Amino acid sequence: MSVSRIRPRYVVTLPKSLRRRREVKVGDNLVWLPLSDKEFLAVVLPGDRYRVLDELMGDVKLTHEAKLAAEASYFANSGKKATS
User: Fold this and answer.
1) Which residue among 6, 7, 54, 81 is least crowded, i.e. fewest CB within 10 A of its CB?
2) Residue 9 and residue 32 in one domain
3) Would residue 84 count as lying in a domain?
4) What are phi and psi of 37, to 5 degrees?
5) Which residue in 35, 25, 30 sits closest to 4, CA to CA?
6) What is the Cα–Cα distance from 67 to 78, expressed in whole angstroms?
7) Could you tell me the residue range of the domain that residue 36 belongs to?
8) DSSP tag of 11
């Protein structure tokens, strides 16, 4: 278990043990989702938006326009809950 203190201006340090588990880099984004009054879920999104698409798409090659459309769709839906 790791503990972080909330510092002035609400800055929180991500513990080294968590940084090592996933290759978190300076500039990446943390998306905070409230679970309850005292619990949050933090999701790491790479700061480079194209890196996200490259990881998702793998070897698929897209035109520049198609890549922009896919990016817009992905980020428009990234904060929404999945529905079945």
Assistant:
1) 81
2) yes
3) no
4) -65, -30
5) 30
6) 16
7) 1-47
8) B
Contact 24, 14 (CB under 8 A): yes
Q: Report the relative pairing of strands 40-45 and 29-34 from DSSP bridges.
A: antiparallel
Q: Does 2 share its domain with 25?
A: yes
**Residues 21 and 39 grouped into a single domain:** yes
Q: CA-CA distance, 70 to 58, in Å (whole number)?
A: 14
**Digit-coded pLDDT (tens) for 4-46:** 899 999 998 888 888 887 778 888 888 888 999 999 888 887 7
What pLDDT digit, counting tens, does each position of 41-73 carry? 888 877 776 677 677 777 777 788 887 887 788
Burial of 81 (0-12, 13-18, 19+ CB in 10 A): exposed
Output the pTM of the full model: 0.50
Structural domain count of the chain = 2
The set of residues, in sequence order, having a beta carbon less than 8 Å from that of 49 and lying 6+ positions away, is: 71, 75
